[in-house]
Amino acid sequence: MKVLVVGGGGREHALAWKIAQSKRVDTVFVAPGNAGTATETGLPIENVDLKDSDTAGLVAYAKANDVGLTVVGPEAPLTAGLVDALQAEGLRAFGPSKAAAELEGSKVFCKDLLRHADVPSGDYKTFRHQEDAVTYLEEREDEPVVVKADGLAAGKGVIVCDTRRQALDAVERIAGAKEFGSAGDRLIIEERLNGHEASVLAITDGRSIITLPPAQDHKPAHDGDTGPNTGGMGAYCPTPLVDAALLERVEEQVLVPTVHHMKRARRPFRGVLYAGLMITKQGPKVLEYNVRLGDPECQPLLMRLKSDIVDLLEATVDGRLDELGGLEWDPRPAVCVVMASEGYPGDYEKGHVIRGLEEAAKLPDVKVFHAGTKLIDGSVVNTGGRVLGVTALGDTISAAKLGAYKGVKCIRWQGAWCRKDISDKALGY
């Protein structure tokens, strides 16, 4: 079978790498892919010169090349309706429909659904006009809040505020200066929850749910969870923060009611349902939903997955997850450290040659997944803010961390940097 993976980030490199290991797969096409998918050795992976926003081109390519399954990685093509367009042409696609993907595409829709489905989450208010949001903030007590752009903003449209002044600045950035474009046409001011964050991802066909091992992302740019929010500076899996009893509670109070409510709303959900959670003293509360694998959570998850991922993807598409049974996992934890370009999450320079990738690839139980890279004249260069996800398995979380940072130490380019404390918080749980 031929499989098309849509996207060009670290998630898509990890997906292509895992899918290509299936004995049932002849070729994995990646559109557009990156330098990592272009240089994989020993696996049948090919890049395709098509943007993930080119819906018509992707549909035509899948038809012309007898693609048996298309796996859509990023949120933007999902919320734009790529899965619907593929299915309309009789093609099989993994991912939610446009209507279901609104769960990530609109934070207002998500919060309203959580309220109606009685899923625990923070209190919130929605605003269409900057003046109304300003009035609301000035009339309430000066206490911490979170200000969010409604639409997609590449993981950066969430601003955590300690004071009213910071919240007013956030409203100006989102609704006044339109820092995130049309994503800020509506905004949410939300109760700031206290606790520890965790990511619980599940695969669902709209009826059955398979919950994946819990992971923990590191969103703030700098050590000690300081600095601006990013798309994610590293992740590890599993996290001891979420034990078996808490995971069961998340399934019962969060995942199941959400899937049922989406079905009742005539937006049946098939694909990856990613719950970003705050583990509070009152229990787990939903911060947001994503409708695809997290990046970088995907990398340690897929490093640990031993089952054939194609069986899982096809069972989801065909609505027969209940027949699949459980998944097999490597018992060892995995840690992913993101290496970024100087200046990220702000402006950064591109085009610097990356060295040391071959050296890192020789390390045992280490895999370097590419995100913002491109192959130019035979050299790998940085083209994005988040550039590489250096991922390692180890007998303990500390051992996995050591392996990942050994890989990081091998790699260099002008301005490269990373957080030094990925997975350290696991030692405190």
TrEMBL record:
- Give the top-level enzyme category: ligase
Q: Which UniProt keywords apply?
A: ATP-binding, Ligase, Manganese, Metal-binding, Nucleotide-binding, Purine biosynthesis
Pathway membership of this protein? Purine metabolism; IMP biosynthesis via de novo pathway; N(1)-(5-phospho-D-ribosyl)glycinamide from 5-phospho-alpha-D-ribose 1-diphosphate: step 2/2
The UniProt catalytic activity note for this protein reads:
5-phospho-beta-D-ribosylamine + glycine + ATP = N(1)-(5-phospho-beta-D-ribosyl)glycinamide + ADP + phosphate + H(+)
Q: Does the keyword Cell division apply?
A: no
A molecular function annotated in GO for this UniProt entry is: phosphoribosylamine-glycine ligase activity
Q: Which Pfam families match?
A: GARS_A, GARS_C, GARS_N
Name the SUPFAM superfamilies on file: Glutathione synthetase ATP-binding domain-like, PreATP-grasp domain, Rudiment single hybrid motif
Which residue intervals define the domain ATP-grasp in the entry? 111-318
Needed co-factor(s): Mn(2+); Mg(2+)
Q: What is this enzyme's EC?
A: 6.3.4.13
Task: Report the record's Gene Ontology biological process terms.
Answer: 'de novo' IMP biosynthetic process; purine nucleobase biosynthetic process
Report the domain of life of the source organism.
Bacteria
In the record, the note on similarity to other proteins reads: Belongs to the GARS family.
Q: What is this protein called?
A: Phosphoribosylamine--glycine ligase
Gene source species: Pseudobythopirellula maris
